Amino acid sequence: MNKKNISIIIFILFLSCKNHERFESEKEEFAIVTASILNSRKNPDLKSDIVGKFSFGSPIFINSKDSFEDTIDGEKGKWIKEKVTNGYIFSKYLIITSGSILKLKGVVDICNFPCGGSCFIPPGDLYLVGDFYIEIDDHMDYLPEDRTPCSTIRIGNWKQDKNEFQFSSPIKYAGFNGKNNHCRITFLSNLEKIGDKIILDHLKKPFNLKKMSDSKGTYYIINNKTIHDRSKYHEYCSEQSLHDKVIEVFDSYYIDEKIDRNNLFSNYSNKFNEKISE
Predict the structure, then answer these.
(1) Rounded to an integer, what distance in angstroms lies between the CA atom of residue 115 and that of residue 109?
(2) Which of 55, 69, 76, 70 minimizes the C-alpha distance to 134?
(3) Gene3D superfamilies annotated for this entry (predicted)?
(4) Are residues 79 and 144 in the same domain?
(5) Domain membership of residue 37 as a residue range
(6) Where do runs of H (alpha helix) occur along 205-251?
(7) Co-location of 166 and 193 in the same domain
(8) Is the model's pLDDT at 122 over the cut of 90?
(9) CA atoms within 13 A on the CB side of 252
């Protein structure tokens, strides 16, 4: 075989590998899903079997040492191996980040709460995944209509300055609807057009959490709001009931909640799949 033929063979092999070039990285990262539903494939190919499905906002551990470059529908990206089902997900529908994981559980203490029709009471659970936050807010005390989501999820950037968390306006957000007291069944792709103003205004605003403490321990307040001593909540609520006074929301705040770092998606999925009874 002459040198010319050898060169041609090498060139053909190069072309055949170009569209499925393998990349390796030393650093473990996370993926946050930005599609309504993202399929995970057994192999890095659209024709491969589906081995998993992930909903909008899902945080997933990925193996960045196992990724392949590809082009789908004219969009260049990478197939990246996820560690939930060991399938491959396409990077066009992901936010990639790295770093630590923290969960802040949203708490709402309600006393004599009146609500007619639609109510939307933050805070929801807040996940800090790498450089990004994922916040889930649920509606309360009503049956959702087609134009109003029963829950919303927003994704944005965050940073910490001493005892304060600072959260940007979202870079992605979405809403979900439901039927028969079940939430998060229908993905609302046109939330921007049909959502109530109060919900859209809430979703678009940046916010901050400030670290505080009281007789019950550490907690985080929203946008520097003043709250009552949590240890006296039941006493205060009983007093309001006795005098037939009506207040809407007594207190809302966040507290630290431990999550299983090695099973991040399951932690999130269990929360997301909870039945929301209105």
Answers:
(1) 15
(2) 55
(3) SH3 Domains
(4) no
(5) 3-97
(6) 233-242
(7) yes
(8) no
(9) 16
Other C-beta atoms lying within 10 Å of the C-beta of residue 243: 7
Positive or negative CA dihedral for 215, 219, 223, 227?
negative
Cβ neighbors of 266 (< 8 A, separation 6 or more) are: 84, 260
With respect to residue 278, please indicate whether it lies within any of the assigned structural domains.
no
Q: What pLDDT band is residue 45 in, cutting at 50, 70 and 90?
A: very high
CA separation for the pair 57, 80 (Å, rounded): 17
Whether pTM exceeds 0.85: no
- For residues 53 and 125, membership in a common domain is answered with no
In a domain, 161, yes or no: yes
* Alpha helices by DSSP H, 150-217: 191-194, 197-204
CB proximity list for 208: less than 8 A, separation 6 or greater: 164, 165, 166, 167, 222, 223, 224
CATH number, domain of 49, equals: 2.30.30.40
Domain identity same for 50 and 166: no
Determine the Cα–Cα distance for residues 210 and 162; give it in Å rounded to an integer.
9
